[in-house]
From TrEMBL:
InterPro entries: 4-PPantetheinyl_Trfase_dom, 4-PPantetheinyl_Trfase_dom_sf. SUPFAM superfamilies: 4'-phosphopantetheinyl transferase. Coiled coil: none annotated. It holds the Pfam family ACPS. Residues 10-77 form the 4'-phosphopantetheinyl transferase domain. This is Holo-[acyl-carrier-protein] synthase. The keyword Transferase applies. Keywords: Transferase. The gene is PPT2. The keyword Transit peptide does not apply.
Length: 158
């Protein structure tokens, strides 16, 4: 099967910036919820709650979500007609979410409920996500103060 590259993107996050936000908006406060719901899908919010309930530091997780969402926005914007493109908040919170494959590698999942949760953008979902049968390659790496994400969006060419 031949695949064509539709979009490529990268994003880097300075993780101390996330740590600073967590100090300003502690996980048990309403500001934290307002902040995270601006860029996280419900699946990611559920995973974040689990991390917090287990008293694990969510800094790297949050940085990974942010970098992934920035990557998907940039990659989509490189080939999608701006008139068809949903607002960033819809892409971040409804279109897709970061998950892990069985080996623990990051992957991007498109939410099949997007046309229902964002009916004004159902044509985008149908034409860009479904009809093109796109595949997303996502790589995330982090070391000390930085987290970097790379994304490639491919489509099958028959």
């Amino acid at each position: 099967m031949i695949q064509r590259i539709l979009g490529i993107s990268t994003d880097i996050v300075f993780t101390p910036r996330i740590s600073h936000l967590l100090k300003r908006f502690p996980p048990n406060g309403s500001g934290f919820q307002r902040l995270t719901t601006k860029f996280m899908h419900q699946h990611e919010l559920d995973e974040l709650k689990t991390l917090i309930d287990q008293r694990r530091d969510p800094t790297t997780y949050i940085a990974g979500i942010w970098a992934t969402k920035e990557c998907v926005w940039k990659a989509l914007a490189s080939f999608v007609d701006p008139k068809l493109m949903p607002p960033a908040v819809n892409v971040y919170t409804r279109l897709c979410y970061k998950a892990k494959d069985p080996r623990g590698a990051p992957l991007l999942v498109f939410d099949a409920n997007f046309p229902i949760s964002s009916p004004l953008h159902s044509l985008f979902y149908k034409e860009v996500i479904c009809r093109r049968q796109i595949k997303v390659l996502l790589s995330i790496s982090h070391d000390k103060d930085y987290l970097v994400a790379f994304m490639t969006i491919l489509e099958n060419v028959n």
